[in-house]
Amino acid sequence: MHRRILKGERLVATFVCGCVLFNYPLLSLFDRDVEVFGIPLLYVYVFAAWAGLIALMAWVIERRTE
Amino acid sequence: MLASPVIVAAALLYLGLLFAVAWWGDKRADAGRSIIASPTIYALSMAVYCTTWTFYGSVGRAAVSGIGFLPIYLGPTLVMALGWFLLLKMIRTAKANRITSIADFISSRYGKSHLLGGLVTIIAVIGVVPYIALQLKAVSGSVSILLNYPEIVMPHRSETEPVFADMSFWIALILAAFTILFGTRHLDATERHEGMVAAIALESGVKLLAFLAVGLFVTYGMYDGFADIADRVAQNADLRRLSAAVPSGQGFTSWFSLTVLAGLAVLFLPRQFQIAVVENVNEAHLKRAAWLFPLYLLLINVFVLPIALGGLLHFAGRDVDADTFVLTLPMALRQEGLTLLVFIGGLSAATGMVIVETIALSTMVCNDLVMPLLLRMKRLALDESKDLSRVLLGIRRGAILFILLLGYLYFRLAGEAYALVAIGLISFAAVAQFAPAMIGGMYWRGGTREGALAGLSAGFLVWAYTLLLPSFAKSGWLPADFLTQGLFGTELLLPQQLFGLSGHDEISHCLFWSMFANIGCYVAVSLLRAPTAAEASQATLFVDALKHARPAGAALWRGRAEMADLIALVGRFLGPLRARAAFAAYAHERGAAGIDELEADAELVQFAESLLAGAIGSASARVMVASVAKEEPLSLAEVMNILDEASQLRTYSRELERKSAELTAATRELKEANERLQELDRLKDDFMSSVTHELRTPLTSIRAFSEILFDDPKIGLADRQRFLGLIVSETERLTRLVNQTLDMAKIESGHADWHASEIDLKELIAQSVAATSQLFTEKGARIKLDLPDGLPLIRADHDRLIQVMLNLLSNAVKFLPPDVGRVRVGLRECAGGLEVSVADNGPGIAPDDQAVIFEKFRQVGDSMTDKPAGTGLGLPISRRIVEHFGGRLWVESAPGAGATFRFVLPLAPAGALDMAEATEAMARAPAPLPASRI
What we know:
The complex is a heterodimer.
Chain A: H1 2-21, H2 26-29, E1 35-36, E2 39-40, H3 41-62
Antiparallel strand pairs in A: 1-2
Helix pairs in contact in A: 1-3
Chain B: H1 4-30, H2 39-46, H3 52-65, H4 71-97, H5 102-109, H6 114-147, H7 167-183, H8 194-222, H9 225-234, H10 237-244, H11 250-268, H12 270-278, H13 285-301, H14 304-314, H15 325-332, H16 336-376, H17 378-382, H18 389-414, H19 420-431, H20 434-443, H21 449-474, H22 481-485, H23 506-526, H24 533-543, E1 559-560, H25 563-574, H26 576-590, H27 602-616, H28 618-628, E2 630-631, H29 636-711, H30 717-749, E3 756-759, H31 761-779, E4 782-786, E5 794-797, H32 798-815, E6 822-830, E7 833-840, H33 849-852, H34 874-884, E8 888-893, E9 899-906, H35 912-924
Parallel strand pairs in B: 4-6
Antiparallel strand pairs in B: 1-2, 3-5, 6-7, 7-9, 8-9
């Protein structure tokens, strides 16, 4: 039961973290004319943060034992 | 080679394949071997979220606003992190109350209100119509572009074109027929369509595959990777602005509102509710889907910007709509196979959306709009013998056709004025209006029917005024003045700058005002009065859906009903056969032999109502059940009492459970402790009685001889000497006994002193033999030593080992036959230690007695006739001493063949590890005694 609650709290934290990552002002920090491997920085940032968020969710959800 | 027959054949073949999959899925479901019982299939079916909006429209959006297409997918990703609670609660509630649509959910929550269910249905239908129009626009657009292959001609449709010459009209009809075949072949009480879900999951796979194929082709086939596209873009000032994609200023507001809208839409779009909640097979699937579905969204978006930029570069200066790039880029390079794959992918995206959306909407229209109206017609309700299940199916089929035609109508009226994404966003803003009533209903007990009605109506009106009507105005169907001068020429009522709020895009503007009105009215009106009995009881079912022991709905019903009436009622809507089967299954579950044995109690009425709710919606089911049962309405006070009682009972029972578990544990511990104490007590008693018994024998002799000496002063000197000698020897025996008892007690309690030192066993044995040689001589026995040289030293207590040897030797002497006695003392090295043996040729020990001799005060022999020859403590003490040093002492003997006492001492008993090795080694050594006796 405790593990269940902990998992829920982790997911809420992931949600809040995502809300911050994908909003002003963090987003504006990456909104500049810089390219990474030829790809605009903002594009790279959003996709990296997105993939990271999904990985985090998968990790929280699929983890079995404490 | 892409002639029109090929295209039509491919499309029909693909639809046929989907139908086959659906048919197979249904068949498997009927056989109880579901093919959709997997979290991956569940996640894929959730991807029905990605329609042609995603497939064609994202690229169009990206071509205008760069990265601005992404919030539509980031919102759902964020919401899925909360899906664990939100969706789980929705699934549990829907399953417990047989809720089959979002209208049913809201109407059921606020006291099974017909009015509310109808309002939600109307909002959903009107709100989703633009979205369906979007699919028609995308499909007909892709077909007409494809028909001109290899030329790339943008579709133009004149307003005056007659309906029957319009391809979109026929596409709408085909989609309607397809959906009717798919979703309304039979009526199911749970409104679940396993076959459809399987087909939707397949479609999600196809559209992802097709989109990735185009993405790879454009990025790596046409250009040389992301960097190459970016290089070319950098040389073009206009495009550069796009790829840098600045969502600054107003952009961030828009970004934020789109994220919120998409997050709400993924929960409250009728088709998402249908797939995620109603069609959910197992709530455990939610776990993996919560991250697989966002992963799907990520994958389908990776190539959007490259395709958009690649298209802008390739078609620079030509009249090609960015919404069609996904299709026109492969066409421009004459990639026939890829073009066809893209077409099929787009078709998947459209059909998937249309099928699920219209099935969900038709359920709502039937259960929450048409049925309540029909039920009000007395003629229909009175005609009890009529089987209504066919009527229900007919209503649903009609609703599907009606909704698709509405979609076509919107497409005709307003479709040309907007890009795909803009149309879709209008629908998103409409379904977002469900959020306050839904989320409020799941977490707040105070929401009332009027509150929900007021909130929904206000939000819907604001949405229609700020988003829907302007879309008509922009396409010229309403006068354009409406947009520029406001209603009645009032500037404050400008639909897209309501009350002067300007500087925002139309979506953010609508979202703000509609949510302001919606949430404001919902909360304010709800707070005007306390919830009624019906609202309070439903609120408990919804808000406490995740609690383990929640009050069953049956607790909140009181009245009388007739079994036959209930079966007949359910039979009218589900068909008599299905109804009897359902009741028989219920009876079986209850352990009753058949339907006839069932009692029409509150729980059965509840069961009948939930069966009906699946088919006609909860509000109608309530009305129908009330029509055949004599109900006694419960007052609010009574409902609150039941709920309070239930929650108090719940608290008490949890508390009781916890306490009784604690009590059981404590009792068990006490019992064990008590048993241990009793055992110790018994051992102590035994020990005391043995000791006193042993003490009594020498004391009796001493007393007897002393009395003789005391009573008869004239006794002879020789006798006096003999008696005194006996008294002395008995006293010595007494002393020895007392010493050994003390010794034993010390060893057992762990208070004995041990002085370990390096010992040469050979020397120790020789010393012990010398000390006892007198005994051997007295008995005429011979002793033979077999002590090899050069054995390792061991670590033990010298005096204690001497004690062991003396015990064993004197014990041997005691049982030797006079004059022919032989004792052999041996010493040898064995695995892990040294073994000492003392063998005699006495009478031997019977197998039964071999364990007994190591017990305290137990001497072998008939105690009635034989005078005890020892204290009965020598062997037990010896065994304890040997065991203390990690060794083992045992006896090998057979009656008449002498006895051999052996003990093994490990070489290095100090270290724990070595000790373990030694013990192991000894286990391999010959072990004549069962392990349990050691």
